[in-house]
Specification:
With 125 residues, this protein is of the alpha+beta class. The protein is built from 2 helices and 8 strands; from the N terminus they run H-E-H-E-E-E-E-E-E-E. The chain has a 3-stranded mixed β-sheet. Strands 4-3-7 form a 3-stranded antiparallel β-sheet, with no helix packed on it.
Length: 125
């Protein structure tokens, strides 16, 4: 479960920055998460609630915006989103990051989808 270690890192970062800037409480955290991080939003929120206990981020709202996975083909020039689809249950995802969805040749470059950014935090001073 990499959601918990991710949540711990987020809490460490936001509390450090908030305290350095004189904040007394963090009320909201705005994240940008790419599809290719394979972080499950509800698990990340649950983990964040646990990791933030006893800190100035305890009780903060976690607001997540998603970044679609996009690729560019070095062979045909295709640029666009890739299809992330499950096979039966949500715990198994099949992702083709090697073959172009248009020309089926190898040589894809990932343009987006790996992001994990803290975009903003809302604090009380």
């Amino acid at each position: 479960m990499h959601e918990f270690s991710t949540a711990q890192a987020i809490v460490r970062t936001i509390t450090r920055v908030a305290i350095q800037n004189g904040a007394k409480k963090i009320t909201a955290v705005y994240l940008e998460i790419g599809d290719l991080t394979f972080l499950v939003p509800h698990q990340l929120k649950f983990s964040f609630d646990i990791a933030s206990q006893g800190t100035i981020a305890e009780g903060a709202e976690l607001v997540i915006s998603h970044v679609k996975a996009k690729v560019r083909c070095n062979e045909c020039g295709y640029s666009g989103e890739i299809d992330l689809h499950s096979k039966g249950d949500a715990s198994f995802m099949e992702v083709s990051l090697t073959k172009c969805p248009k020309c089926n040749k190898e040589g894809l470059e990932i343009i987006s989808g790996r992001e994990l950014n803290i975009k903003n935090i809302k604090v009380e001073m």
